[in-house]
Amino acid sequence: MTNFSIDTHLSPIKKEKPNWGELEFGKVFTDHMFIMDYKEGKGWHDARIVPYQPITLDPAAMIFHYGQTVFEGLKAYLAKDGRILLFRPEKNMQRLNRSNDRLCIPPIDEDLALDALKQLIAVDKEWVPTVEGTSLYIRPFIIATEPYLGVSASASYRFMIILSPVGSYYKEGIHPVKILVENEYVRAVSGGTGEAKTAGNYAASLKAQETADQKEYSQVLWLDGVEKKYIEEVGSMNIFFKINDEIITPALNGSILPGVTRDSIIALLKYWNIPVSERRISIDEVMDAYRDGQLQEAFGTGTAAVISPIGELLWNNEKMIVNGGKTGELSKKLYDTLTGIQKGDLEDPFGWVTEI
Ligand code: COI
């Protein structure tokens, strides 16, 4: 890292804040953003906080043509005592660098990126929403900026952080969502980019998501890209099942996104001495458990989605109604505990929470 000091140019205008009670996900942005550029031979440079505004890029910038980009998602919460808290932000920066490595993007200095993030939030602290169930969503991302149409790694990049006060990701909020098990398309394959947080994985998911929308399902559940048999993840979250009192989540296999919330839920379950397995699980095993009356709960985990109970899974026109379509006891306890730690309402035995 070269020349790291953050220049701050405050916005002359403060935008009007939305009604915190009516926040949707990712539609409103704060007054400032963070930018840092990279150039081969110069390294990362010119770190700055500037007023939130459109950016100008050459139409030949490689991001537009070959999708060389990575991103992260994390949240800041306002505690009752007025502190602003971040949840395991170092994990996101570590994952950003793992994604960078997969996409041939030069690594960022994780400590300096964390510092930038904290300074940006401090500047826009009035944008951390105050209503129950809301938070300030943080979106760090890196794009390839070199104007060049050859397929290769770019010689220049831009790292940015933008902030968005958000409500629930799903319109259902904490109520159970309906999930369509995808049987035609796949999200990722072994050796592909599935475990990196890169735009292409999400672009590839849109076609299946459109079908799910038409059938009034919230998201799709992806199966493995080889046999279309083993469960991978849901569109914007990892997935857990409670079957016969065991909690099962697909093991990380290179094509599943290693979620920070997923990791935290596994740690919480272990802390409570609840049996949890990370292993291969097929959709047939889930269907068999359902038919035997042993599928007790299912829920998704993610930064945006938090803990999202699953009330229904549709697989090949056969419906699995989970826990009578209601939020399960364990999903509720996990949601309450995780959000309680994140907001500073509950003790944090893991040291996960960082104050800004
Ligand atoms: C997140 O949970 O933060 C994500 O990045 C998922 C995204 C699709 C909203």
Major sheet characteristics: 9 strands, mixed
Alpha-carbon distance between the termini? 23 Å
How many DSSP H or I helices?
8
Q: Estimate the global geometry from the Cα principal axes.
A: globular
Bin the strand percentage: 25-35%
Radius of gyration: 21 Å
Q: Estimate the mean pLDDT confidence.
A: 95
Catalytic activity: L-isoleucine + 2-oxoglutarate = (S)-3-methyl-2-oxopentanoate + L-glutamate; L-valine + 2-oxoglutarate = 3-methyl-2-oxobutanoate + L-glutamate; L-leucine + 2-oxoglutarate = 4-methyl-2-oxopentanoate + L-glutamate
InterPro entries: Aminotrans_IV (IPR001544), Aminotrans_IV_CS (IPR018300), Aminotransferase-like (IPR036038), B_amino_transII (IPR005786), BCAT-like_C (IPR043132), BCAT-like_N (IPR043131), BCAT_family (IPR033939)
Modified residues (N6-(pyridoxal phosphate)lysine): 197
Organism: Oikeobacillus pervagus
SSE layout and pairing:
Blueprint: E1 7-8, E2 32-39, E3 43-51, H1 62-66, E4 69-71, E5 74-78, E6 84-87, H2 89-102, H3 110-123, E7 135-144, E8 156-166, E9 177-181, H4 199-203, H5 206-214, E10 219-223, E11 231-234, E12 238-243, E13 246-249, H6 260-271, E14 276-278, H7 283-291, E15 295-302, E16 306-315, E17 318-321, H8 329-342, E18 353-355
Parallel strand pairs: 1-3, 9-10, 9-16, 13-14
Antiparallel strand pairs: 2-3, 2-8, 4-7, 5-6, 5-7, 6-18, 7-8, 10-11, 12-13, 12-15, 15-16, 16-17
Helix pairs in contact: 2-3
This protein binds 2-OXO-4-methylpentanoic acid.
